[in-house]
């Protein structure tokens, strides 16, 4: 029993089952609403097509013989009551149609019938008009003014009461024996119509429910298949995000109910990618700072100590006499090693938290190369550049690598660094007059590989290297500015 209950809960928790139940209930209530609307419209039309002068006159003619016989037998109250009741019952239950599609006006109204039977002298043999007079109806005066009109069936008002006046004639000698006057009131009543519709639904709800169940199951299966398919797409994309690939984005139809959720997930993925990049950059920056501190506190200090030892040895005349040349050479090597070490420490230190601008850093790099290698480095710029710290770090490293390659490999004596901004795109061009190289002979050294990797970290970054043997090399770097 417990296993059966657990299976039932599992079955009910399935998406297609829940959607099927929801759609079945929705279909059930929708068909009930549709049945109410159609039944009300049909009854309203049937009501007005049933209440006609022809139908009222037809009923009166069918009962004329009984009324005539009741007047001839003046001592028979039973005949008069029978004649009146027959006419009232038929008018109250006025109907049209045949078979199972018969419509009765009692489904939409509470008809009132007032009958007066008089003899040929106008003496009332039986009358209900006194009851009608007590209602203080606005049609009362109109009924009295129509008293002279004989053998007529007419509307007292459009879609209002009907007044019928019939002369009763003896069939054998065509002698006038009396009059039959009828006031027939039947107005469409929405409340009565509503109750009749509820009664109709009470007898038909099982058939409506039986019809709505398969509709709900079919719609539930279709909807669950669609939702499951969309969720599967979202799962595939989020799985790629979990593996570190944030290039894929969730794309759903614009009219999809999951569109807002897919947009939220795309935004979340973009924020997560930015967070991971920031975290990676912070980790790299921390590691660079740690290496800079270690080099400063260990290697630099030892080189400084070595320099002191060499300076001390220089004071010893005996040592200078036998190894003076080597001591001077060692001291020069030590100074060069200290200079190179300071350059490495400076490059390793993060640029964040420093008030030096991006352009000033490029100027510092250019001045350093002028001093160290004795070359001409010219700067051309249309405006001062501004970048965020992350972009600035990669660009400066690309500039340094480009200058080093121009000096060491290109043997350049002049380098021109030019910048240009077009809307949100910044272009940096580094041109040298070195020996250049043939494009087909270009090798994938670590420096070039590092430059291409750094360009991929820039927003919409591109790198183009053009070189001609004996002429020089031009490196064009461009990126979208997000400062």
Description:
A hairpin with a 4-residue loop joins strand 3 (112-119) and strand 4 (124-127). The chain is 58% helix and 16% strand. It has three domains: 52-185, 2-Layer Sandwich (Beta-Lactamase); 254-350; 357-483, Histidine kinase-like ATPase, C-terminal domain (Heat Shock Protein 90), CATH 3.30.565.10. A five-stranded antiparallel beta sheet has the order 4-3-7-6-5. It has a five-stranded mixed beta sheet with strand order 8-9-10-12-11, covered by helices on one side. Helix 2 runs antiparallel to helix 8 (190-242), helix 10 (299-314) packs antiparallel against helix 11 and helix 12 packs parallel to helix 13 (389-408). The longest helix is centred in the middle third of the chain and has 53 residues, at 190-242. The chain has helices at 2-12, 15-50, 53-62, 64-72, 77-92, 129-134, 140-145, 190-242, 259-297, 299-314, 317-348, 358-373, 389-408, 446-456; strands spanning 95-96, 103-104, 112-119, 124-127, 152-155, 162-169, 176-185, 376-381, 414-422, 425-432, 462-468, 472-480. The protein is built from 14 helices and twelve strands. The protein starts with a helix and ends with a strand. The relative contact order is 0.06. It is an alpha+beta fold.
Annotation keywords:
Heat Shock Protein 90; 14 helices; 58% helix; alpha+beta; 483 residues; 3 domains; rod-shaped
């Amino acid at each position: 029993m417990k296993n059966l209950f657990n299976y039932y809960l599992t079955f009910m928790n399935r998406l297609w089952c829940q959607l099927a139940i929801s759609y079945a209930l929705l279909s059930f209530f929708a068909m009930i609403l549709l049945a109410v609307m159609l039944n009300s419209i049909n009854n309203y039309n049937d009501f007005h097509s049933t209440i006609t002068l022809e139908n009222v006159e037809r009923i009166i003619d069918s009962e004329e013989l009984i009324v005539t016989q009741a007047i001839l037998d003046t001592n028979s109250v039973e005949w008069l009551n029978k004649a009146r009741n027959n006419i009232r019952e038929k008018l109250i239950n006025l109907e049209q149609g045949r078979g199972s599609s018969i419509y009765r006006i009692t489904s939409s109204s509470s008809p009132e019938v007032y009958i007066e039977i008089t003899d040929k002298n106008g003496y009332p043999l039986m009358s209900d008009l006194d009851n009608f007079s007590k209602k203080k109806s606005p049609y009362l005066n109109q009924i009295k003014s129509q008293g002279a009109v004989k053998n007529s069936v007419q509307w007292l008002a459009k879609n209002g009461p009907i007044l019928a006046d019939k002369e009763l004639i003896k069939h054998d000698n065509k002698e006038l024996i009396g009059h039959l006057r009828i006031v027939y009131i039947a107005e469409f009543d929405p409340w009565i119509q509503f109750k009749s519709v509820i009664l109709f639904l009470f007898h038909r709800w099982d058939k409506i429910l039986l019809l709505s169940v398969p509709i709900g199951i079919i719609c539930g299966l279709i909807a669950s298949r669609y939702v499951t398919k969309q969720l599967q797409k979202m799962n595939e994309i989020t799985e790629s995000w979990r593996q570190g690939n944030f290039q894929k984005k969730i794309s759903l139809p614009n009219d999809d109910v999951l569109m807002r959720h897919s947009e939220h997930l795309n935004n979340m993925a973009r924020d997560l990618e930015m967070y991971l990049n920031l975290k990676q950059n912070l980790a790299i920056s921390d590691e660079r700072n740690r290496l800079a501190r270690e080099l400063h506190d260990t290697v630099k200090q030892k080189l400084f100590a070595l320099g002191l030892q060499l300076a001390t040895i220089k004071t010893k005349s005996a040592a200078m006499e036998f190894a003076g040349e080597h001591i001077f050479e060692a001291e020069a090597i030590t100074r060069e090693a200290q200079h190179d070490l300071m350059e490495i420490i400076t490059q390793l230190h993060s640029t964040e938290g420093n008030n030096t601008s991006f352009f000033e850093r490029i100027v510092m790099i250019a001045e350093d190369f002028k001093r160290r290698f004795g070359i001409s480095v010219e700067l051309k710029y249309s405006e001062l550049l501004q970048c965020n710290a992350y972009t600035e770090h990669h660009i400066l490293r690309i500039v340094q690598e480009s200058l080093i390659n121009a000096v060491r490999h290109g043997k350049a004596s002049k380098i021109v660094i030019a910048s240009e901004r077009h809307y949100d795109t910044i272009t940096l061009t580094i041109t040298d007059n070195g020996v250049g190289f043939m494009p087909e002979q270009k090798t994938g050294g670590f420096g070039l590989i590092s430059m291409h990797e750094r360009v991929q970290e820039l927003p919409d970054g591109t790198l183009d290297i053009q070189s001609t043997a004996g002429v020089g090399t031009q490196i064009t770097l461009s990126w979208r500015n997000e400062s």
